[in-house]
Design brief:
The complex is a heterodimer.
Chain A lengths: L10 H18 L1 E3 L3 H10 L2 E3 L4 E3 L2 H10 L4 E3 L8 E3 L7 E4 L5 E3 L6 E3 L2 H13 L5 E2 L12 H12 L3 E4 L7 H12 L2 H6 L3 E6 L5 E2 L1 H13 L3 E5 L2 E2 L7 H22 L5 E5 L2 E3 L6 E2 L3 H18 L4 E3 L10 H16 L4 E5 L1 E2 L4 E2 L1 H18 L6 H4 L1 H6 L10 H6 L14 H6 L5 H14 L8 H18 L2
Parallel strand pairs in A: 1-12, 6-19, 7-21, 9-10, 10-11, 11-13, 13-15, 14-16, 18-19
Antiparallel strand pairs in A: 1-3, 2-3, 4-5, 7-8, 16-17, 20-21
Helix pairs in contact in A: 1-9, 2-9, 3-9, 4-5, 5-6, 5-18, 6-18, 8-9, 9-10, 11-12, 12-17
Chain B lengths: L2 H9 L6 H10 L4 H21 L5 H18 L5 H4 L4 E6 L7 H12 L3 E4 L6 H11 L3 E5 L6 H13 L5 E5 L5 H7 L3 E3 L2 H13 L1
Parallel strand pairs in B: 1-2, 1-3, 3-4, 4-5
Helix pairs in contact in B: 1-2, 1-3, 1-4, 2-4, 3-4, 4-6, 6-10, 7-8
Classes of the chains: A alpha/beta, B alpha/beta.
């Protein structure tokens, strides 16, 4: 695994952060909602469990042992074999995913904001399939389905419309089993899902250092089903975490390690992705910010620390903005964030298409993010140093003052560079002759072209009906 | 010791000295009403002004409110009923299904600092619990909070249950997924983008 391409920390600082993380877990612990089964499993694994208070402490040796069970390399499955993702990415760069759970939709043609529907979500999934720079996705919150099955219906819609991996955010403990059933239906059964986990499950701490029943059930059922768990800690510096970033990083790391420990106590070898999603509290208003410079520094620092100290794959916001509209602030923030996170060695850059701290999405923004994230991936990719790349023959055989345009080597490599289709590289006169379209106008045209195409990731009718049946069963049980 | 020092102690978040300054002022014969109005309350008004202009940040404002309360505790036994009457009663809570409380807590602290009697029902609160508390306390305002997109329907249900139960006080809503449009849609009386707006909103609702 490649580490960070730059780092904030020296070895002593990493050592102190690691020591404090283990101390927090061993001496102070985390608080779990009352879950007798998990308490029993954790106790058997060596944790110090106080059932009456829900406090669980992890002696250092226990934590190190449980941590050692978590695989450092694994796959996020997909319906199509060529969409399966190997973590860490073999080329040393990162994967990308779309935003999770947003409820607002910015209409591409009019820029109007409205609540999102299941039809929008199907279009969103189709767009994701057509964008090669986006590796996997999540569902969004649709306004036209009963809220108690919004997660089940959302996942079914996405699974019917994409063959890429989907990460899953359950909204209630009761929904977890239906969400896993949807994954099984697409993968072809329980065992097939274990071999090809087409979904992975999000579990979150409730900062500071607490875990609610929903997330305990997610960890338990996902580990039993052999699904990868995306262990998210979402502290807000100055609100649900101390104001200083090293403290936030330690707290986030401790919460994530607690989830790693729980998953390994249930089923050793459960894949876990560490997601230290750091927010900063706006000290003027109390709002949580995702793209302020403090939030970016915190997220980047947490990724660097967790990768260096624990060698776990990491996932975080890798794009996005606090701005409510697609504007210059939005573009500046996401450019800064994506580059910083890419340079930090993050394995999955999430949040493509999102606005307003992940509460709204824009299909046009998703198209832009697809290209920007591809550029970041290209930027942070390592160099190959070999005879071909050094082009020694070409350099030495070309006379001083001559050029390389006609060299076979140049012809062979002239398409190596990334060529984003929505970014202008023409002179002003040409640009004006071509209609003087700005980025958003060009992206809108691109969107229209893309949406005219067939969806390459549609699920066959048979399995799609099976998904509908699971949604109906969930509605009957949860929303009646 | 004069009221100016008390005023300054609140502005400067001086929790170590405010109580002593109030005691000294009392010992020197300063009128209780003067300490209250020209020292403590005037300081909190100034804090509010500085916050609204961006000169003070949220934690600083909350700390100053806390310091003001420390001073208030010293003179509370000496105040008449008219002086200690709360500006109004607010029943506050995070709606059913949602366990997030930081935004709600901020709202509670700020309303308390502004002189309101705040009854905090906590998180994951059933609609009927809001009804019961609003009825028992004769609340002027019920304030509902939600962080999760998935729990805003519970907010709608709570508003509806409150109204069906005949609770006529003002209802205000807030939280990350909430908007003015949503507040209008569910029949809430007001919506605030963030915690500091809660005080302005409650003041305007109760003086309208």
């Amino acid at each position: 695994m490649l580490g960070s391409r730059f780092t904030y920390f020296n070895d002593d600082q990493i050592g102190l952060l690691r020591k404090r993380t283990f101390e927090l877990l061993s001496e102070h612990g985390v608080k779990l909602d009352h879950h007798p089964r998990l308490f029993e499993l954790l106790s058997k694994a060596g944790a110090d469990v106080d059932e009456s208070s829900g406090m669980v402490r992890f002696p250092v040796r226990t934590m190190e042992e449980l941590l050692s069970f978590a695989p450092r390399e694994f796959k996020l499955g997909a319906r199509s074999e060529d969409k399966v993702l190997t973590l860490p990415r073999p080329d040393g760069t990162f994967y990308t995913r779309t935003v999770t759970g947003a409820h607002g939709w910015i209409e591409p043609e009019t820029s109007e904001y409205r609540k999102l529907t299941s039809d929008d979500l199907a279009d969103w999934a189709k767009l994701v399939n057509l964008l090669n720079g986006i590796d996997f996705m999540s569902y969004l919150f649709c306004d036209d389905v009963p809220v108690k099955v919004a997660d089940v219906a959302g996942l079914a819609t996405v699974l019917k419309n994409t063959d890429k991996h989907v990460w899953v955010q359950p909204y209630s403990p009761e929904a977890v089993e239906y969400l896993i059933k949807l994954g099984e239906a697409v993968a072809g059964g329980k065992e097939s899902l274990k071999k090809n986990p087409v979904i992975s499950m999000i579990a979150c701490s409730l900062a500071p250092r607490a875990f609610k029943m929903l997330d305990l059930e997610i960890i338990l059922q996902s580990a039993e089903a052999g699904l990868p768990i995306q262990a998210c800690s979402l502290p807000g510096a100055g609100g649900t975490a101390p104001a200083t970033l090293p403290a936030v990083i330690v707290m986030a790391a401790a919460e994530i390690l607690a989830m790693v420990a729980m998953s390994q106590a249930v089923s050793p070898g459960t894949p876990v992705v560490a997601c230290p999603i750091i927010f900063a509290t706006d000290m003027r208003s109390g709002r949580s910010l995702q793209s302020s410079v403090e939030a970016m520094r915190g997220a980047s620092g947490a990724v660097q620390f967790i990768k260096t100290a624990f060698n776990l794959p990491t996932h975080n916001y890798g794009t996005g903005a606090d701005s409510p509209i697609v504007d210059a602030q939005c573009m500046s923030e996401r450019a800064l964030l994506s580059m910083l996170m890419g340079m930090s060695g993050l394995d999955i850059l999430g949040g493509a298409g999102q606005l307003e701290v992940a509460t709204a999405v824009s299909p046009l923004q998703l198209i832009i993010d697809n290209e920007v994230l591809s550029m970041v991936r290209r930027t942070v990719a390592g160099y190959t140093i070999d005879d071909d790349q050094l082009a020694w023959d070409v350099i030495t055989k070309t006379k001083p003052g001559d050029h390389f345009m006609l060299a076979d080597h140049t012809v062979r490599h002239c398409r190596d560079g990334l060529d984003p289709i929505n970014f202008v590289r023409v002179a002003r006169d040409t640009w004006e002759r071509q209609g003087a379209a700005d980025l958003m106008a060009r992206v809108l045209e691109n969107y229209r072209d893309l949406m005219k195409r067939d969806n390459p990731g549609l699920l066959d009718a048979g399995p799609a009906r099976e998904l509908d049946g699971i949604v109906q069963a969930a509605k009957a049980k949860l929303a009646s | 010791m004069g009221v100016q020092e008390i005023f300054n102690a609140v502005i400067n978040m001086d929790d170590k000295n405010v109580a002593g300054l109030v005691r000294e002022a009392l010992d020197q014969g300063t009128e209780v009403g003067k300490i209250l109005n020209e020292g403590l309350i005037a300081a909190l008004d100034e804090v509010g002004r500085r916050f609204s202009t961006g000169e003070m940040f949220l934690p600083e404002m909350l700390k100053a409110s806390q310091v003001m309360k420390l001073g208030l505790e010293i003179i509370r036994p000496l105040l008449g009923d008219a002086d200690t009457k709360a500006a109004g009663t607010v029943v506050l809570g995070t709606v059913k299904g949602d366990l997030h409380d930081i935004g709600k807590n901020l709202v509670g602290m700020m309303l308390e600092g502004a002189g309101y009697n705040v009854i905090d029902l906590g998180v994951d609160v059933e609609a009927n619990a809001f009804v019961q508390q609003a009825r028992e306390t004769g609340a002027d305002v019920v304030a509902l909070s939600a962080l999760l997109t998935t729990t805003i329907p519970a907010m709608e249900e709570t508003v509806s249950v409150l109204r069906e139960a005949g609770i006529t006080c003002k209802i205000i809503v807030g939280g990350a997924p909430v908007s003015q449009g949503f507040a209008d849609e569910i029949g809430a009386d007001a919506y605030g983008d963030d915690a500091p707006m809660a005080v302005t909103i409650v003041r305007s609702l109760l003086t309208a």
